[in-house]
């Protein structure tokens, strides 16, 4: 970037080619592209070149008065209209941002009156300094991190609260390419108008906000602070590297202009790198093809079906010609709490058998051909909500369809509505006293729901801490799910799009049962399910006894 004495001078730059290993010290620019208009003209290698206004604003802010500044900026250094070049450059993005001496983050122009950026940055630095002092006093980061670090409420003036709210809503914090760029940075400086702040201070303050519990009490300041969403910033500041599938899932909240970038923009965050051996970037493929090939790649690498736990369809889903039913839609932020989406979960419906141990399986971007066992047909389904009608209706149907004592049937319903999980624990792994406490909390919840006029009061059935946790778990697990009953009398929890005549199966390589919808001799994949009767390998035992048989399922 060539220098300029005056801010209103036209931008001039020279685009130079270097091998990444022998490039001179340079800074990499990270910014949200923003709208294309009004386009700004600059001179690049003596030729007129147009860029988006946000890039022009960033370059004007970074331009020096007397010396050149070496910058890498994607819209200038990559030919965005050349698919082959984009494919190649995406694979280099990790090297570019880790090689940069510093990443400059452009948050945008700041309104000196309404944005309160100076005051906001000063308080962010105060929070960071206070956290660092706490860390120095304790010698290492405490288990609760910054939860016990207190900042005086008087600091959060009305103008500061407005400034914080506007800051964390800036589009840079929502973009998926920005996630990768900041995570790879050796050092980073944030610019907002004429103001600047170091990433360490901003990230630490965002972590402090994330750790605080502002949800209790009637204090208006706490209520307002509770409304600030710093979780995306927390994800950006967290340098923990995980595998391909978990990286894709953790980044679903971030946005991209091209849906394919929901996969390609996070590749350099995956660890170990061997998980990506053989994976190819190809912008020529459609979005549906990219998502399907990604799912097949992960399944082939792991020989497991954990990827299927992240499939979520809308309530009226009945197939989509542009997307395979079994490929997670990484471009959709609306995630679903997985029932068995990780290798070490306790559910073993197929007794740990991987797809590698089966015959006749075939994985390609058009369909998955998998082996498994048919369990039963869905007879009826019902929405599950925390109101008297739905929960009591589910309880009534459960009493009709299942044998055993009243206590056993209530306990079955309790395990089902939370998919066998209580917080981060699995009910089957809890000690006897903890399990009894869980079942007592569920009965307490049923009692509260039997008195709808008193729910939310302390009149007859006060909300205990255990019942509150249970209620939150039901809310978490019921999202995008329905309870259902099968033709053989089993109660289950399945995807919101399921309906009567769908089928429940166990597929080798999966942790949980799955719900499928027949389509001729093939099937739509609807999602994972919890069926209490078969979560611990009961169908595999029945197979060994000759009571059921294997089948081949073609998923489209």
UniProtKB/TrEMBL annotation:
InterPro entries the UniProt entry points to: HET, HetReg/Transcr_Mod
Pfam families in the cross-refs: HET (PF06985), Het-6_barrel (PF26639)
Domain of life: Eukaryota
Ranges where the Heterokaryon incompatibility domain occurs: 26-181
Protein name: Heterokaryon incompatibility protein-domain-containing protein
Organism the protein comes from: Paraphoma chrysanthemicola
Upper lineage: Eukaryota, Fungi, Dikarya, Ascomycota, Pezizomycotina
